[in-house]
Amino acid sequence: MAKNKIENKIRQLRFDNGQMTQSDLASKVKVTRQTILSLEAGRYSPSLELAFRIARTFQVPLEEVFQYPSN
Amino acid sequence: MNISAREKNTWIEFTITAVVSLYYFYSSYRLSGWTQIVSYDMGVLVWNVIVLSVVASIILFVLFSLENPEQKDERDLAIESRGNALGYYSLTLLCCILIGTIMLSEGILSIGETATLTAQASSINSAVAMHFLMAALMISALFKQATQLFFYRRG
Fold it and tell me: Which candidate in B1, B73, B152 is best for mutational testing of the A interface (most A CBs within 10 A)?
């Protein structure tokens, strides 16, 4: 997966939520730990459904987790 | 090494395909070269290839996949579809090369000449065509698995 333009704050949100591990988040949103790792590294863009599941897990709006810079 | 169960399975499939391909081509060349096929020997070889694939699969999956396999997630499916696409393109390309080679060797594409495609007159005989198609199948499978491994390793 090529480096994409969608940025995210998953790592920061994990630490803000009681130092949640990648495995914990992966099991909550029903993906593998490797997918969370790729997301955090910015090498994989999630589907809308997965993006919403992640935002819902952290109980924040979608745009607080994922950003798409204009330039 | 950080490796998921899916990636591990792909490595196993890749290894089995590579070993079986090498065995098939080495054995078929040793039997009668690649330009002719002795039916009984070829039958035994095909049987051996099937048995080798099944036994190797069982041994490798038992050795390396003891933990519970994970469910495929959307990234696994994306990687799988990229691999399938590249495997399909390589298979199509190799089949086109075979068809093109047969047509060129028979002079079918020559303008103003009459050419007939017959089994007897063909310079690419059916044995060579069969081995080429087997190679196309194996190469496309290897391409597919190598692509998946590339994307798994890349992250």
Answer: B73
Nearest to B74 among A37, A41, A50 (CB): A50
CA A34 to chain centre: 12
Minimum distance, in Å, between the CA of residue B12 and any CA atom of chain A: 19
Q: CA distances (Å), A50 to each of A24, A35, B36, B101, B137, in order? A: 15, 11, 55, 48, 35
How far apart are the C-alpha atoms of B121 and B102, rounded to whole Å?
11
Q: At what angle do helices A33-40 and B74-105 cross, to 10 degrees?
A: 90
User: Measured between beta carbons, which residues in chain A are less than 8 angstroms from residue B75?
Assistant: 1, 31-32, 34-35, 38, 44
Instruction: Tell me what ipTM this predicted complex has.
Output: 0.83
Model confidence, pTM: 0.78
- pLDDT (tens, 9 = 90+) of chain B, 155 residues, equals 677 778 888 888 899 899 989 988 888 887 767 666 666 777 888 888 889 888 888 887 777 665 556 678 899 999 999 999 999 999 999 999 998 888 877 766 666 666 665 555 556 777 788 888 988 999 999 999 999 999 998 87
Instruction: Tell me the count of A-B CB pairs closer than 8 A.
Output: 40
